[in-house]
Specification:
Four Helix Bundle (Hemerythrin (Met), subunit A), 126 residues, 0% strand, 86% helix, mainly alpha
Length: 126
């Protein structure tokens, strides 16, 4: 009888620890996603200021590179379809900004800001 109870307790504790670890992992991923989304938002703000100040392409390229790198990291690290889709939207918007820069057009940063807002919303826990 005691062996049965010990086995049952061990199984319950193992399951509880596994669930707790999974919850911590999910919570950590959500926090990492939110942190990176905030960093992307900051880079978009810097890109917007650089575009408004008619900064050179190197500065704008550096900001778009940072945004792309962080959005790709979020996409690669998540198992969440909504987060991956939002990261894809950011990546697509960054590509559109780059294309505008290459043709010497004034880039429309509105879609990029919208995509980052969407990413921030889906990354924010709760």
């Amino acid at each position: 009888m005691h062996t049965y109870r010990r086995t049952a307790v061990a199984v319950v504790l193992t399951a509880a620890l596994s669930a707790g670890t999974a919850a911590c992992d999910a919570g950590q991923r959500a926090m990492d996603c939110a942190r990176l989304a905030g960093s992307i938002a900051s880079s978009v703000e810097q890109l917007t200021l650089a575009a408004g100040d008619a900064a050179d392409a190197e500065d704008m390229g550096r900001f778009t590179d940072a945004i792309e790198k962080e959005a790709q990291k979020i996409k690669d690290d998540t198992g969440d379809a909504d987060i991956a889709a939002a990261a894809d939207s950011v990546l697509e918007a960054v590509e559109n900004v780059r294309e505008s820069m290459e043709t010497d057009e004034n880039p429309d940063l509105g879609p990029l800001g919208d995509a980052v807002g969407e990413l921030t919303a889906v990354c924010t826990p709760g």
